[in-house]
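Filed under: proteins

Residues; backbone shape codes:
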Amino acid sequence: MPLGSERVSKSGVKGVGLKEAAMINKSLTTLGMVISSLAKKASKSQEFVPYRDSVLTYLLKESLGGNAKTIMIAALSPADINFDETLSTLRYADRMKKIMNVAKINEDPNAAMIRTLREEIDKLKSRLKSSGADVGDIKALQDKLIQNKLDRERERKEWEQKLQAARKAAQLGEEALNSQGQMSNPNPNSKQPKSN
């Protein structure tokens, strides 16, 4: 959007054009105050920014001090007659240069989380590739580990069943010997249970 001051004495406007030039100059003055306030605010001072003083500054609020990247092009004139306007434009551009906007991507929080998780997955994949391991190899190792755990669990259950069967067989053997009265004490140091 091209902006420029209206020098009434140079342009010679009258009537409606004069009122229009006065409104343009008022908006540009307010824009200058907003830019000065934003430049001071960038240097960590608590400064009120008068965005609502003009329709122009209210419309440019997000572009000037909000969530945006803004570019200002200063058009200068080399003619001596425009020295004041050139100097004013340079001062204006210098103040504009001091404004620090921090532009952020406007996105849904869920989309942001998905994006960061995808970036993390890509990072982890690249780390895996750089370490020489292949994703397929890792999957095969994980499957082998799971199979080993299952085999160990199956073997443990088999041994428990065999142990229970051996205990049951020993108990049945003892009961058979007790019923026949032929229980012998294999360990002479142990005491026989007393019977009443």
Observations:
- The chain has a mean pLDDT of 81.
